Amino acid sequence: MSALFEPITVTPHSPDHVGGPRDVVGGMRASRGVSFRNRVVMPPMVNGSGDGEGDVTEAALRYYQERAAAGTAMIIVEATAVDEKGRCWKTGLGAYADRHMASLQRLSEAIRAEGCVAAIQLVHGGPQASPELVGGETLGPSAIRPSSDATIPRALTREEIHSIETRFAEAAGRAVEAGFQAVEVHGAHGFLLDSFLSTHRNRRTDTYGGALQNRARMLVETCTRVRDRIGDQALLLARVSIFNKRDEDFSAGDFKELVKALEGAGVDILHISTDGAFAGYFGADKSIGKWAKEFTRLPVVVAGGLGRPRDAERAVAEGHCDFAAVGTAMLKDPDWTRRAARALGV
Q1: Structure confidence by residue, pLDDT tens digits, 106-119
Q2: How far apart are CA 330 and CA 334, in angstroms?
Q3: Torsion sign (Cα): 270, 90, 101, 59
């Protein structure tokens, strides 16, 4: 039996029991569990699915449905804005208003109709938001440019931080009401929540800056608020990236502290974005996924360099991850999962 095509069920964590063990049952259906037919995940990739107002286009429905129909276990819909002031792409999707719910429901139904788990990633662009779309002013942990040609963001107040956390929770509630079985909090790739984690971008001296516990506070609080909002009606994923912190002295101890904090916040699945699923981060002998699986019971999704079926198979079989995220290869080939099954003799 191919490890990549083994089914698994993950049970949403109740907000009343945050911090307790997660119920993960391979190949079985658990109470209130979300069942995955295999371990192939299409990660979120922004491709201009929106109509300019945050709603899904007909072309986007076909795009996602084709990849679901190929046998993919879970599709995580591209980064979807939780706040008009956090928009990054004119044709990006939105979940920041009730008017988006009908469109989101059509999308979740199109994915689920093919037997695929429908998930959606939620994002606030922060310092990487588009000035043209947000009225000129971008927001961040500190007034530090994310790049040399970017706008200098305004540092958020504590009240604004809490307001944005609430925006994430409200957007998650809309997504779940619209039929999504999982929501992902985007804490990677330099967007707002990841900018708070960065020692380069976050120079705050209050409880949201300094030590890792403080820099991670907004991400952790956001996950907690989302968990409280969606209860056990859907899975909660958190996406993090470590490769963009290599020059910030982000240590193995920091990574462990971050993962344990997310686990305590009620996250059900950890999604790690890498620049190579098998690459060593805190030592050449161990991948980031294997590091994570040593100290957390959370199922792990790993993205990065898994476009060949044999590599995705190896990643799951060798314990680098529980789910293999196939991005660019699936972007190019909507039938990737079906072809992978044939290649692996399934």
Answers
A1: 999 999 999 999 99
A2: 5
A3: negative
Q: Are 288 and 301 in contact (CB under 8 A)?
A: no
Query: What are the pLDDT digits (tens) for 140-180?
Result: 999 999 988 889 999 999 999 999 999 999 999 999 999 99
Tell me the CATH number at 325: 3.20.20.70
For the chain, how many structural domains are there in total? 1
pLDDT at 26 over 60: no
- Which residues span the domain enclosing 81? 3-343
User: What mean pLDDT, rounded, does the chain reach?
Assistant: 94
Residue 63 has pLDDT above 50, yes or no: yes
pTM of the prediction? Answer: 0.95
Closest residue by Cα to residue 150 from 136, 160, 170, 163: 136
